[in-house]
Amino acid sequence: DVKVTQSSRYLVKRTGEKVFLECVQDMDHENMFWYRQDPGLGLRLIYFSYDVKMKEKGDIPEGYSVSREKKERFSLILESASTNQTSMYLCASSLFMGLTNEQFFGPGTRLTVL
Amino acid sequence: AQKITQTQPGMFVQEKEAVTLDCTYDTSDQSYGLFWYKQPSSGEMIFLIYQGSYDEQNATEGRYSLNFQKARKSANLVISASQLGDSAMYFCAMREGSGTYKYIFGTGTRLKVLA
Questions:
Q1: What secondary structure does DSSP assign to A51-64, as a single string?
Q2: Residue pairs between chains A and B whose CB atoms are closer than 8 Å
Q3: Are B61 and B49 in contact (CB under 8 A)?
Q4: What share of chain B is helix, strand, coil (3-state, %, to 5)?
């Protein structure tokens, strides 16, 4: 079974702190994604990576950066956390090519910025 | 621009009955894939079913089926014989075939199954 794990289920940080959210997948997937989920807005793509050290901006990259130094690990970084970044963050992975390849999701990290 | 629309924010269904969750999409691509995911209260998204744009038959997976109407650009999820464990958020998503890695998600429908 594909397993996608995220470093924390719940996280509370203060405004201005630097925040790291870690995601690890164990199925050798090329693609990895970070989404944020807010009520009424569905899932919005922050960043995705299609290979090691490769990344592309999604729909809402402002205030975030990412790092992918190893194939299995994709990190989301909030350089200076703000209250409007309070949200559920979901990591996902998928195989590289093919329309049929579904995404596999981690359990999510619920981040609160005070 | 590609878009997924789920017009039902919330729905109720009686246990053992069937329910249809609506999804319409917008794309200019001829080749695309459509997905449905379930998100229980625990938070983890679970893949349910897939339909390709060139698939002639509607996809089925156990109690889940996808009512695919290409001309109307709709991909509704049908859950037969609803169970209490089906209570969750359901998301429709699309991936286009034009070389993008991206998946586009709808805003979701919250389903509550009543005993």
A1: ETTEEEE-S--TTE
A2: 59
A3: yes
A4: 5, 55, 45
- Tell me if chain B has a CB within 8 Å of the CB of A78: no
The nearest alpha carbon in chain B to A99 belongs to B33
- On whether any CB of chain A is under 8 Å from the CB of B12, the answer is no
pLDDT single digits (tens) B22-60: 999 999 888 899 999 999 998 889 999 999 999 989 999
The residues, any chain, with a CB within 8 Å of residue B40's CB and separated by 6 or more, are B46, B87, B88
Taking an 8 Å cut-off on Cβ atoms, the answer to whether B45 and A33 are in contact is no
Whole-number CA gyration radius for chain B: 14
In chain A, residues with a C-beta closer than 8 Å to the C-beta of B5 are none
| pLDDT in the model for residue A101 | 81
- Asked if A88 is an interface residue toward chain B (Cβ–Cβ < 8 A), one would say yes
Dihedrals phi, psi of A84, to nearest 5 degrees: -75, 5
Mutation site, A23, A43, A94, interface B, largest B CB count within 10 A: A43
Token pair, residue B90, equals 């359901």
Q: Identify the residue whose tokens are 């690890």.
A: A24
d(CA B65, CA B77): 6
Which residues on A lie below 8 Å from B7 (Cβ)?
none
The contacts of residue A97 (CB under 8 Å, 6+ apart) are: none
pLDDT surpassing 90 at residue B94? yes
